[in-house]
Amino acid sequence: MFNNPFGVINDVLVRTGFIQEPLNWLSSPEGAMLAAVFADVWKTTPFVTIILLAGLQSIPKELTESLSLDGADLPKKLLHLILPMLIPFIRIALIFRVIHAAGIFDLIWVLTKGGPADSTRTLSLYIYDLAFRYDELGYGFFLTSFFLLTLILVSVVIVKTMTLRYEKVPK
Questions:
Q1: 40-90 pLDDT tens trace
Q2: 22 lies in a domain?
Q3: Residue 23 is assigned to a structural domain of this protein
């Protein structure tokens, strides 16, 4: 996709007139990070889509039909019915994406190995280098454990804030 003369992205951008000649995406720090983010979004969008589709399919049709009979238009249906019922599914997708994005290793390793100039180096790549290239297994284990605890804490915060904001019903 990111090949300099023959990549799909360069081909589409040249044909549509956005750029004059193909770019070498992985040779500049900005281009490498943009390519990594694009590839990660491309890779994980279907997973998030399936989670949200499951949420949409769980909404009873009777509820949307009753809102239509009451005269609610699409924005009101989205705001007062669909979005509140999708909150648990959005929470699940958000937790999965945060955990995956924080620990991304494989995609960055294959695309750039953390380069150029460490511009795409993530914590996972740093821990890998530390533990296996520099034989600092103890420090690598410590960072991995700290990273895991941080991700657990972030997940708990996501669950608690979304629960407090959207699922508490006043008595």
A1: 999 999 999 999 999 999 999 998 889 888 888 889 889 888 999 998 899
A2: no
A3: no
Q: Does some domain include residue 137? A: yes
Please indicate, yes or no, if residue 20 is contained in any of the structural domains. no
pLDDT of residue 5: 78
| φ and ψ at residue 18, rounded to 5 degrees | -70, -30
Q: Around 112, how many Cα atoms within 13 Å sit in the side-chain half-sphere?
A: 28
Which whole number is the average pLDDT over 110-125?
91
Query: What pLDDT, in 10s, does the model give residues 11-43?
Result: 898 999 998 988 888 888 888 999 999 999 999
Q: Which residues lie closer than 8 Å to 38 by C-beta, 6 or more apart?
A: 9
Token digits for 74?
């699409």
Number of structural domains the chain divides into:
1
